[in-house]
Amino acid sequence: MEDANDKYIKILKSNFPSNFKLKGIKIAIDCANGAGYKSGPKLLKSLGAKVYNVGTSPNGLNINQNCGSTFPKKIKHLVKKYRVNLGISLDGDADRIILCDEKGTIVDGDQIIAMLANRWKRKKILKGGVIGTLMSNYGLQKYFREKKINFLRANVGDRYVKEKMQKKKFNLGGEQSGHIILGKFATTGDGLLVALEVLFSMRKGKKASELLNVFKPMPQILENIVVKDKNIINGLKCKKAIKKANKIMGLKGRLLVRKSGTEPKIRIMGESHNKNLIIKCVKIIKRSIKN
Predict the structure, then answer these.
(1) pLDDT exceeding 90 applies to what percent of the chain?
(2) Cα 117 vs. chain centroid, distance in angstroms?
(3) How deeply is 37 buried, as exposed, middle or buried, from its count of CB atoms within 10 A (0-12, 13-18, 19+)?
(4) Biggest alpha carbon distance in the chain?
(5) How far apart are CA 56 and CA 80, in angstroms?
(6) CA 177, CA 59: separation in Å to the nearest integer?
């Protein structure tokens, strides 16, 4: 379909009032040399924004290469260079989004979800509550508890978030990585749709740094270890190390050790207000995997 991009942009814009414009707003966008390389800049320009873009020259090999949501340094540099109101960073298939506020602070999926949930609750749009994952920051969970917003965790992966949303009849869910499902508009994650929803919230002159600094995250460390066999975490040595680390961590935080669903890696996540404690516990587990 040669007009697919135009049809897609029309569908996205139809979710918002016809008078929604971005005139006077400066936006930087990193399209990761992927699926959104045409539609991203075109959509924002059609709404009147001044757009600075990178990651819009795919050659079939450079998708996500030192760009996009998995390489936020790029969008941070762009935001500072052009002094824009908001930086948008998509991943290769444009279903994930990471933002950068006007001060150059990277905003992950947890902060975006917190802002949207709060806004949707206020506007009486939120249904049921929010689905996060085992990776969602504890600070997010605490924030939702204070705001009396139901919060449940699913296994890591957008398919599990979606399944739980359908089961519980919730209309908002997502991951720290920026895969966010806006059940009011769509059944899957869409980075540009989320970007529009955030920009719609900024339309009355709110700064991104004010809007997207919702809760104080608990310090979190994530280690990704390349392995030949992901089943190493089921071995006795690794199990003993995980048990030992959990005992040391106690009630001061939490640890999560899991196989990557997409790569030959073991992911270790530690979370606690005591950063030295996280480092110590993660090291214990890491040694059992690397040796």
Answers:
(1) 96
(2) 14
(3) buried
(4) 62
(5) 19
(6) 25
Write down the pLDDT at residue 258.
92
Q: How many CB atoms lie within 10 A of CB 234?
A: 10
* pLDDT value, residue 25: 96
Is 234 inside any structural domain?
A: yes
In a domain, 181, yes or no: no
pLDDT tens profile 142-153: 999 999 999 999
The number of distinct structural domains making up the chain is 2
Read off the tokens for 288: 């059992």
| 155: in domain | no
For strands 26-30 and 253-259, give the pairing.
Answer: unpaired
How much is the average pLDDT of 217-239? Answer: 93
- First CA to last CA across the chain, in angstroms? 52
Q: What is the dihedral of CA 249, 173, 178, 270, to 10 degrees?
A: 0
Whether 162 and 188 have beta carbons less than 8 Å apart is answered as yes
Q: What average pLDDT score do residues 119-134 get?
A: 96
Q: Which residue type does 83 have?
A: R
What's the confidence (pLDDT) of residue 142?
A: 93
CATH number at residue 33: 3.40.120.10
Domain that holds residue 19: 4-107
The per-residue pLDDT for 291 is: 58
Task: Please state whether beta strands 172-174 and 180-182 pair in parallel, antiparallel, or not at all (unpaired).
Answer: antiparallel
Cα–Cα distance for residue pair 100/54, rounded to 1 Å: 14
Mean per-residue pLDDT of the chain: 95
Give CA 97 to chain center in angstroms: 6
What is the Cα–Cα distance from 203 to 163, expressed in whole angstroms? Answer: 33
